[in-house]
Design a protein that fits this description.
The structure is a single chain. By secondary structure, this protein is of the alpha/beta class. About 50% of the residues lie in helices and about 10% in strands. The radius of gyration is 21 Å and the shape is globular. The structure holds tryptophanyl-5'AMP. The site of tryptophanyl-5'AMP (TYM) has 24 residues, from β5, α5 and β8.
């Protein structure tokens, strides 16, 4: 999907913009909606539903039902997710990782985590390989700070660990034609050769567990829906290679602090990085788009719309666990009882409290990071 219109929805692994229509994505990508029936099936294993599921922040899947059925019959699965380390981690990236941690705890299963320094080198002209590799290390600290344990968490740094990936990447690449890749990813005549091959590398961790342990089990991938095109081509070749098709559970995008699109590091002023200082967070949140009215008097009279407010989305996604308090805030916003300044102050406080803790854990992770490396 691409086009000239600024408001047009564009969702690819390398670009997300416009107003995101999730129903339309389910149809166009050919995924399945996360139904109440499937949520019940998950809840059976997880002592009730995780907040991100209750709030429908995860909304779509591929083969999650199959993976759960297999699990019931005694075939475990592994988790797989990742990060393209082109800069610091932002709080949107934490959304699928927090959920991954929850699944890992409940299903007691391994996580393979891919750091794609190679991808970020190949797909942006200005990026230097050594910088991407360094960010890979720095971004791993954020993952570890969320509480993952080394016993069942295996981080793959693509450039350093390519010897583990290359044979399977070749098997995958040989079975995907250029015509399929172009149709899936929108490659152009000007796309460099490395980028055209690269999707085969993101496919490999779906199968790495079988390669390392000899145990052939499916992978379940929690990630935002922008990554789905990778899984389409991977699923096409999986069975030809003797593996299960990887399953997915897709989350919505935490929006940026501006209008439309997702939180994206390419717009740093609308993006909260995990390494931002309290002052920087305060400034960014203060400048956020809320859709509030022109004057306080007007807003007190007519209220505002939490549906279009970025600040409200941050409470919904990450910073208000109490459903009662969330709906109270929503109601007060609609009736004009609470003004944007107050919500911004509350959110700044919540984010800074979270980041102060996270940043401490992130620094501590420097002591243990080597234990998470797949080649430990
Ligand atoms: P990357 O670095 O673009 O994104 C890392 C993860 O964060 C998700 N994401 C978001 N989720 C919620 N709100 C947002 N605003 C937001 N922005 C990004 C992404 O979907 C992703 O899950 N090619 C990948 C790296 C990768 C990978 C994987 C990701 C390799 N293997 C397997 C997921 C699963 C990338 O550049 O992700």
């Amino acid at each position: 999907m691409s086009g000239e219109d600024e408001n047009e929805m564009v969702v690819t692994p390398w670009e997300v913009r416009g107003k995101i229509d999730y129903e339309r994505l389910i149809k166009e990508f050919g995924t399945q909606p996360l139904t109440d029936e499937l949520l019940k099936k998950i809840a059976k294993h997880t002592d009730g539903l995780h907040l991100q599921l209750q709030r429908k922040l995860f909304f779509s899947h591929r083969d999650l039902d199959t993976v759960l059925d297999l699990y019931d019959k005694g075939t475990k699965f592994v988790l797989y997710t990742g990060r393209g380390p082109s800069g610091p981690v932002h709080i949107g990236h934490l959304v699928p990782w927090i959920f991954t941690k929850h699944l890992q705890e409940k299903f007691k299963t391994r996580l393979y985590f891919q750091m794609t320094d190679d991808e970020k080198f190949l797909t942006y002209d200005e990026n230097k390989l050594a910088d991407m590799t360094r960010f890979g290390y720095e971004n791993a600290l954020d993952l570890i700070a969320l509480g993952f344990e080394p016993e069942d968490t295996f981080i793959i740094y693509d450039v350093a660990d390519i010897d583990l990936l290359y044979d399977v990447a070749l098997e995958v690449a040989k079975r995907i034609t250029y015509s399929t890749a172009r149709a899936t990813f929108g490659f152009q005549d000007s796309t460099n050769l490395g980028w055209v091959f690269w999707p085969a590398v993101q496919a490999v961790p779906c199968f790495i567990h079988a390669k390392l342990t000899g145990e052939n089990v499916p992978a379940l991938i929690p990630a935002a829906i922008d990554q789905d095109p990778f899984w389409r081509i991977t699923r096409d070749v999986a069975q030809k290679l003797g593996y299960y098709k990887p399953a997915q559970i897709h989350n919505r995008f935490l929006p940026g602090l501006g209008v439309g699109g997702k939180m994206s590091a390419s717009e740093p002023e609308t993006c909260i990085f995990t390494i931002d200082s309290a002052e920087v967070v305060k400034r960014k949140v203060w400048n956020a788009f809320t859709g509030g009215k022109g004057t306080a008097a007007e807003q007190k009279k007519t209220g505002a719309d939490p549906n279009i407010c970025t600040i409200f989305q941050y409470f919904l996604f990450l910073f208000e666990e109490d459903d009662g308090k969330l709906s109270d805030r929503e109601r007060k916003c609609r009736t004009g009882e609470i003004l944007c300044g107050e919500c911004k102050r509350d959110l700044t406080e919540r984010i800074n409290k979270f980041l102060a803790e996270h940043q401490k854990k992130r620094e501590k992770a420097r002591d243990t990071i080597d234990k998470f490396h797949i080649k430990r």
